Amino acid sequence: MTAPNPPEVDIVARSFTENGCTVTAIIYEPADAQQILYGTVTRDGVLVGSYYCADRIRQQDWRIVTADGHDLTLDGNPVRPLDEGSAVIVLTTILTAPKDEIDQRLRDATRSPR
What we know:
Layout (H helix, E strand, L loop, with lengths): L8 E10 L2 E10 L4 E9 L2 E10 L4 E7 L6 E2 L2 E2 L5 H11 L4 H12 L4
Antiparallel strand pairs: 1-2, 2-3, 3-4, 4-5, 6-7
């Protein structure tokens, strides 16, 4: 008995520029859907941070890791973007701000609507 051929799968890298940063996403592309494995953000060749999806099947429960290797937190609580786009916005606009503005920008971005 011969084992069936595994389905064809591609893992690709896609890069784009956002707010002066280079965003590179590593994507798993089976025949039926794509799943983002992780992404990195650099500015002028220096790592800003990375993002990944803890639940790749549902593409939810996103995480951000800062350039120093720690989960991004605000006031001791993890920052959890809703999707890849939100993670990219945090990395390309908030974490590239002057250091004394980052916490306030995170607070503004994560505040509940009134």
